[in-house]
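Milestone M4 deliverable, item 7.
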Amino acid sequence: MVTRTDILKYVDKNYHTKAEHPWAKYPTSEILRHERNRKWYALITDVPRSKVGLKGSELIDILNVKCEPDLVFALSTQEGFAPAWHMNKKHWLTIILNGTVSDDEVYRLLDLSFELTK
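Output delivered:
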């Protein structure tokens, strides 16, 4: 199961990205952005399970990534995914980091998001 820590190690190794914590009020929210153009390519945060269509109120880590609209539409109704939490739901997708989505798929979508936001 891919964790927040795994993602942060992956982006550091592959993209030389260090997570930023732009909101003091939300210290567990981390954005990943390109060094040159400063565009975001991912957001890692925790939200109550109910915010992503799951039962319960305990916090769960999620990863928001940018995708082509057709891919967002196709994946957002599948288990392990949700319409983008707190972002444009046409171009962004939430991946629920609970082990439902394979590690390879999480990294593939992260790579896609990185490329789309170059």
